[in-house]
Specification:
Length: 186
C-alpha cells in the first residue's frame, strides 16, 4: 500500500508507549500502531500481537532498547519481526528501511530554523516514505513543509484534543500520531 493510502485509511495513528496502551489500541479504529517501547527480547512478540489484530506495525527503532543506531538494527527488525516499517530520527536507518521494503518514517523535531533547514536537506538527499513532524501543533510549520514536499506528513507530539487534530489536518498534515488514548476513538 502506498504511504498516502495508508494514512488516508488511518488518519489517526495509535502511538503506544506501554502494554496498557497497546491493549487499548486494539479496541480503537486506528489501523496503524506506532510501537514506542520494547526491547530486542520482546519486540517480536509486540509486533506479532499488533499483526494478529490486523493492524500495521511500525517500530520506533530509536526507542527499542538493545538496538544500535546502525543500519543493522533495521535489518534485525526486518528479519526477526513482521513489522511493516520503522520510525527513526536517523536518516540512514530510514533509508535502509526503504531499501528493505519496509515503510521508512523520518521523525523530525522542529525546534528552530536550523532544524527546518536540516529536514529540507534530508528530504532532498533521500525520500523517506513519510515524515513525522514534532510537535504536531505547529500549523505554520506544517504548511511550510507541505509547500516544500509531497511526502506524506504525520503530525505528532503535544496533540491533546480534537481541535489540535483538525488544525493539523487544515495545515496540510495527512495523519496525526498521538499517545493520548482518548483521541484514538474520535
Amino acid at each position: 500500500m502506498k504511504p498516502i493510502e495508508l494514512l488516508e485509511s488511518s488518519p489517526v495513528i495509535a502511538a503506544v508507549k506501554d502494554e496498557n496502551g497497546l491493549n487499548r489500541s486494539f479496541a480503537s479504529e486506528c489501523q496503524v500502531v506506532f510501537i514506542l517501547y520494547g526491547n530486542i527480547c520482546n519486540i517480536e512478540s509486540i509486533v506479532h500481537r499488533v499483526k494478529e489484530q490486523g493492524k500495521i506495525a511500525i517500530v520506533h527503532v530509536d526507542l527499542t532498547a538493545g538496538l544500535s543506531a546502525k543500519e543493522i538494527a533495521v535489518d534485525y527488525i526486518k528479519e526477526n519481526t513482521r513489522a511493516d516499517g520503522i520510525i527513526s530520527t536517523k536518516p540512514l536507518l530510514v533509508k535502509r528501511a526503504s531499501e528493505l521494503g519496509l515503510y521508512g518514517i523520518q521523525r523530525t523535531f522542529m525546534i528552530d530554523s536550523m532544524a527546518m533547514n536540516t529536514m529540507k536537506k534530508q528530504l532532498d538527499s533521500f525520500q523517506p516514505d513519510m515524515v513525522e513532524v514534532m510537535p504536531g501543533i505547529v500549523p505554520k510549520i506544517l504548511k511550510e513543509i507541505r509547500s516544500y514536499t509531497d511526502i506524506p506528513i504525520i503530525a505528532g507530539g503535544l496533540i491533546s484534543d480534537k481541535k489540535d487534530i483538525m488544525s493539523a489536518f487544515a495545515a496540510g498534515a495527512d495523519a496525526i500520531s498521538t499517545t493520548k488514548e482518548d483521541l484514538w476513538f474520535v
